[in-house]
């Protein structure tokens, strides 16, 4: 990585003006910034701010005459003059407002946002800056305990003990992230050519407040001292390396038309290949779309995914929704080597412009779709009928957690449920996979998950309800055998370090799949319960086992049935159930029945019986179900369509033999069948033939 240009972002129209009322930029000390080009011997681009803070909401959208558009003009010119530029580095530590605006501009220009200071511990960061020889002086103070007459002009090394004392006494940000102070760098390791010497300066008092006076340091004169030869003459303060960028900002109406005209013509799809399922909950539900594989069809992944996304978009519009209502997307494809093709198609439909409240979180997995009689793409979306979701979308590359460059986010919180994107074992600053094997990838994926959970003031060790762990078929058996033990150890250590006393006991589902993004061996998908100021309780108070007659399909409660079911009921609001049908369970069912030719129907009725029993015992109904995912092992040799039809038949039978309608069988199926290589409750065995994953949420 090489620094190819500096961008002075940005300065006031008049040189004598020290500070603007800007939400975005620091302008105090702009008079000396021109010298940075000579200090580093790289070109510097600057622009005078013409706009103002017009779009003040957290998430930014292109707005005419906003000061952010000045940054767009500036970086556009830098990109024109230096076409090789690939990324923009900023010093964001804690400000979402500023980070999101830099990311927005980078996204529009096809650049990567680098924010290596993001979410760093400010005390440690301050110490590291001083230890690495950064000489930065305070040029503005605006906080209790800071005095313009005493502290302006002092460097960070001198101020460090006092800043730490203010943090302890008042909770101040030691790096000034709360606006407590601003700095100007006079020397640092990047200044290989020269350093800056401030000759004369003036303290300007903006507010003589007795508690928190506000003042700035106005640099009157300064010079550059060349490094390596102290007897040499001082360098020029301004040089040919400095360029000022003029020109107007983008025209929003033209830009919008350009985006609209760029939307591709969507393919016409053959209706008899398309299959839809949808759960019945009115305010939060899942819609799934898959294609029946056709021997006569020569379509590729791009065409199949376009067909599926077109149909889903149609379903959303038909129900009065659009992509901004989507919380989470499961993207299943037939070949991970075509991930780039899938992503290019995906971003034609789901964009940040279409999702002003935040783009959905996403998990992308390769599945054995062809083996199960499906086309090359399969998509499941979780939809909400309100705009209350809270989305965490960090596109910048940092040391915090892996970036999500594109229209998919790290996590989405809705109705107390945190849906986290599938986490790979990526090292955040390099975005490379840990190369020491599956155990190392798992540890990194969990570390990344914990960082995301901490953004919601939670820990995966105490708030996780369910972990779905996807394992690549390339994972060695010796490593698979250790995954679950290492997983539990990580959670135990995290729990003890946080001294957690009231934690949810999470459930685990391990899924064996052909491949994962970036050829990863492990992907972790956590689901967390996030409720403010509420005691979380497990299932004990809600469990009314044995209080009703839930017999169905010839099944009545038996002790061994409980070994098939895991469930968590939290605060009486959420019921999550995992039902596992192994080869051994199938044999038991066959022995009890004495019939061989009805195996699939028998298993389907048994699953519906146990799921219905679990919901009813805990005072939930099928109308509370937000998703019902059934992982089908390809070892059974059954198509997705056949198993889906068999379950639909079991639900119709449930309706006929129970009081009141349980599931409306006149509509689309409420379940989606997901073909996998295998599944299990631990990583040591993937011998589940069918694994049901049910979420129910009471309004």
From TrEMBL:
EC number(s) recorded for this UniProt protein: 6.3.1.14
Enzyme class: ligase
Chemical reaction(s) catalysed: diphthine-[translation elongation factor 2] + NH4(+) + ATP = diphthamide-[translation elongation factor 2] + AMP + diphosphate + H(+)
InterPro entries: Diphthami_syn_dom (IPR002761), DPH6/MJ0570 (IPR030662), Rossmann-like_a/b/a_fold (IPR014729), RutC-like_sf (IPR035959), YjgF/YER057c/UK114 (IPR006175)
Annotated ranges, domain Diphthamide synthase: 18-193
Pfam families: Diphthami_syn_2, Ribonuc_L-PSP
Stored PANTHER family: DIPHTHINE--AMMONIA LIGASE (PTHR12196:SF2), DOMAIN OF UNKNOWN FUNCTION 71 DUF71 -CONTAINING PROTEIN (PTHR12196)
Name of the molecule in the record: Diphthine--ammonia ligase
């Amino acid at each position: 990585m090489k620094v190819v240009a500096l961008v002075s972002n940005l300065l006031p129209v008049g040189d004598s003006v020290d500070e603007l009322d800007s939400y975005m930029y620091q302008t105090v000390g702009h008079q000396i910034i021109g010298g940075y080009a000579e200090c580093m011997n790289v070109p510097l681009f600057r622009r005078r701010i013409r706009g103002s803070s017009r779009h003040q909401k957290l998430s930014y959208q292109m707005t005419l005459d906003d000061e952010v558009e000045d940054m767009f003009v500036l970086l556009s010119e830098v990109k024109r003059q230096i076409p090789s530029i690939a990324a923009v580095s900023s010093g964001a530590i804690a400000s979402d407002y500023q980070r999101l605006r830099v990311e927005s501009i980078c996204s529009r220009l096809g650049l990567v946002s680098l924010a290596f200071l993001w979410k760093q511990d400010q005390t440690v960061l301050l110490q590291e800056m001083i230890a690495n020889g950064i000489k930065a002086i305070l040029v503005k103070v605006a906080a209790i305990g800071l005095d313009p007459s005493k502290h302006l002009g002092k460097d960070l090394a001198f101020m460090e003990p006092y800043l730490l004392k203010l943090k302890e006494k008042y909770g101040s940000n030691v790096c000034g992230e709360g606006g407590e102070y601003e700095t100007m760098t006079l020397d640092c390791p990047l200044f290989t050519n020269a350093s800056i010497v401030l000759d004369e300066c003036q303290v300007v008092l903006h507010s003589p407040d007795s508690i928190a006076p506000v003042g700035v340091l106005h640099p009157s004169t300064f010079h550059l001292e060349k490094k390596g030869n102290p007897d040499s003459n001082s360098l020029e303060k301004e040089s040919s390396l400095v360029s000022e960028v003029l020109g107007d900002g983008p025209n929003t109406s033209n830009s919008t038309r350009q985006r609209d005209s760029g939307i591709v013509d969507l393919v016409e799809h053959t209706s008899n290949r398309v299959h839809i399922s949808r759960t019945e909950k009115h305010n939060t539900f899942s819609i799934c779309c898959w294609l029946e594989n056709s021997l006569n069809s020569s379509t590729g992944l791009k065409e199949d995914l376009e067909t599926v996304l077109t149909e889903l978009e149609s379903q959303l519009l038909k129900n009065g929704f659009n992509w901004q209502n989507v919380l989470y997307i499961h993207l299943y494809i037939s070949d991970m080597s075509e991930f780039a093709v899938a992503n290019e198609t995906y971003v034609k439909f789901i964009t940040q412009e279409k999702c002003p409240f935040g783009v959905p979180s996403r998990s992308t997995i390769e599945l054995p779709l062809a083996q199960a009689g499906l086309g090359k793409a399969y998509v499941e979306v979780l939809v909400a009928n309100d705009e209350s979701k809270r989305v965490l979308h960090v596109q910048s590359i940092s040391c915090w957690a892996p970036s999500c460059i594109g229209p998919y986010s790290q996590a989405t919180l809705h109705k107390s449920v945190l849906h986290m994107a599938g986490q790979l074992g990526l090292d955040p600053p390099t975005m490379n996979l840990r190369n020491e094997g599956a155990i190392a990838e798992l540890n990194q994926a969990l570390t990344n998950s914990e960082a995301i959970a901490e953004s919601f003031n939670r820990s995966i060790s105490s708030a996780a309800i369910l972990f779905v762990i996807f394992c690549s078929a390339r994972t060695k058996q010796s490593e698979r055998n250790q995954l679950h033990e290492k997983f539990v150890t990580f959670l135990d250590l995290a729990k003890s370090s946080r001294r957690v006393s009231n934690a949810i006991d999470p459930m685990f589902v391990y899924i064996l799949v052909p491949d994962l993004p970036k050829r990863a061996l492990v992907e972790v998908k956590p689901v967390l319960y996030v409720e403010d100021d509420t005691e979380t309780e497990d299932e004990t108070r809600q469990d009314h086992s044995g209080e009703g007659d839930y017999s169905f399909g010839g099944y009545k409660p038996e002790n061994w049935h409980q070994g098939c079911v895991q469930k968590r009921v939290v605060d009486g609001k959420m019921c999550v159930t995992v039902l596992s049908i192994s080869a051994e369970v199938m044999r038991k069912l066959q022995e009890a029945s004495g019939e061989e030719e009805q195996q699939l129907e028998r298993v389907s009725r048994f699953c519906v019986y146990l799921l219905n029993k679990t919901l009813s015992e805990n005072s939930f109904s099928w109308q509370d179900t937000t998703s019902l995912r059934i992982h089908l092992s390809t070892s059974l040799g059954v198509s997705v369509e056949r198993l889906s039809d068999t379950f639909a038949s079991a639900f119709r039978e449930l309706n006929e033999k129970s009081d009141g309608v349980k599931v409306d069988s006149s509509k689309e199926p409420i379940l989606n069948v997901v073909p996998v290589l295998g599944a299990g409750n631990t990583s040591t065995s993937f011998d589940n033939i069918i694994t049901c994953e049910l979420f129910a949420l009471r309004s």
